[in-house]
Amino acid sequence: MIYSVSEVNSLAAQVFLQNPLFNNIQVSGEISGGKLYPSGHYYFTIKDQKASLNCVMFRSAVNHLNFRAKDGDAVILKGNVNIYEQTGKFQFIANAMEIQGVGNLHIRFEKYKKELEAKGYFSKENKKPIPKLPKIIGIATSESGSVLQDMLQILRRRFPGFKIHLISVSVQGEKAPSEISAAINKFNLLDQVDVIILARGGGSIEDLWAFNEKIVADAIFASEIPIISAVGHETDFSISDFVADLRAPTPSAAAELVLPEKQILIDKLKDNQTKLSQILNNKITRAKSNWKFYSERPILKQSQNLLVGYHQTLDDYFTRIVRETKHQLNSQIQENNNLRHKLNYFMNNMLRLKSRELENQKKQLTALDPYAVLKRGYTYIEDENKKIISSIKNLANNDLVHIHWHDGKTKARILNAEKETRGET
Q1: pLDDT tens digits for 262-311?
Q2: Could you tell me the CA-to-CA distances from 199 to 155, 225, 240 in Å, in that order?
Q3: What is the SS3 assignment for 422?
Q4: Domains of the chain: residue spans and CATH
Q5: Of all residues in the chain, what percent carry a pLDDT higher than 70?
Q6: How far apart are CA 391 and CA 362, in angstroms?
Q7: Gyration radius (Cα) of the chain, Å
Q8: Sign of the CA dihedral 22, 23, 24, 29?
Q9: Which residues contact 384 (CB under 8 A, 6 or more apart)?
Q10: Average pLDDT over the chain, rounded to an integer
Q11: Which of 38, 88, 45, 89 is nearest to 69 (CA)?
Q12: Torsion angles phi and psi, residue 271, rounded to 5
């Protein structure tokens, strides 16, 4: 039996398509000769020390990449072996790609971190201060985990009688991001707590990933209540750590940061009270000593004699002030009268001068008034565009014109435009 070329290629394609060994497999190698076409498809070769393999990643798969593939990248591909029937070309159809040695989550983390930093989510200007002594502490964590019990134990030790508002949330898994963001929004809606702690124990990047999601970062950034992020161990970092107003190395550290030790505050208050009492006692003692010293002075025992001289002095000063005030008032009145007479004289002269100037200007304006010229029998002519015609050069036979007198206007048509020469050369 003789096969055509297309039949052979089709049979080979069916072999690869139906054989599970060539479907949904992973291939590792180094990218070479990669080219992204305007269509969005990415054609490239992966190679190792012994061989190379032609590959293609179609646009739908390329759009799901969270990094830009380039020549030299060591990657892991997931897809199917295939033959392109038109050319018989053996190739690998890649449906997914990731960098070897660096998981996709790490790449997503770094990419998202850069995006949020560029938007100002991490800037110090947007950080809210943490209250020094919050009345009610909001905590969003899993109520079934040991993290909550560890935090409560520390808070009881540091500040007995504290108040918390707990919203239990999933701290990993598909539901965790939406539950965490919903808890933050609820705290803000109720407006009952002074600070919020987001808490979770340590784990892998996959375990902590809920605190790297955009929905959580947006909720933290939009919160009107200051937030402490306490996710994982001291060496673990999440997006929530960077967006939050304060990062605690661990949930236990967050409990120590959010409240001071009550006994230390009490001791400090007692110490301040003692110092204040000493200061007041010293001032009272000095005041008593000063009073005793001055009260025994002879001059104070006969204080009524001191006041007699001051009374007479005050009477003299009052008499002088009244006399001087009357004198100054009379002088001011006389001066004001003189100024008023001078001002009236000056204003009358100015009015006469300005009246004459106004009359002269009125005569000049009347002489220059174009309507006054028209009343003497003169007219002016405009064309159809209301442009004044100042020369017969601007007219032609049959032109429609407007003739204006001082008391009206009319339309006319030029029958014969004759130019006269008056002294022209």
Answers
A1: 777 777 888 888 888 889 888 888 888 888 777 776 666 665 555 666 66
A2: 14, 16, 10
A3: coil
A4: 5-102 (2.40.50.140), 135-259 (3.40.50.2300), 369-425 (no CATH)
A5: 94
A6: 31
A7: 49
A8: positive
A9: 400, 401, 402
A10: 87
A11: 45
A12: -65, -45
127 three-state secondary structure: coil
- The count of residues in the chain is 425
Please give the structure tokens belonging to residue 62: 């390329």
The answer to whether residues 41 and 57 touch, using CB atoms and an 8 Å cutoff, is: yes
Q: pTM of the full predicted structure?
A: 0.47
* Lowest mean pLDDT across 5-14, 75-84, 309-318: 309-318
State the Cα–Cα distance between residues 227 and 212, nearest whole angstrom.
15
74 DSSP 8-state letter = E
**pLDDT for residue 142 is more than 50:** yes
- Beta-bridge partner residues of 73: none
- Tens of pLDDT along 342-384? 888 888 888 889 888 998 888 888 777 777 777 777 888 888 8
The backbone region for 370, taken as left when phi is positive above 0, alpha when psi lies in -120 to 50, beta otherwise, is alpha
Could you give the angle at the alpha carbon of 368 between the alpha carbons of 364 and 372, nearest 5°? 115
The whole-number pLDDT of residue 425 equals 46
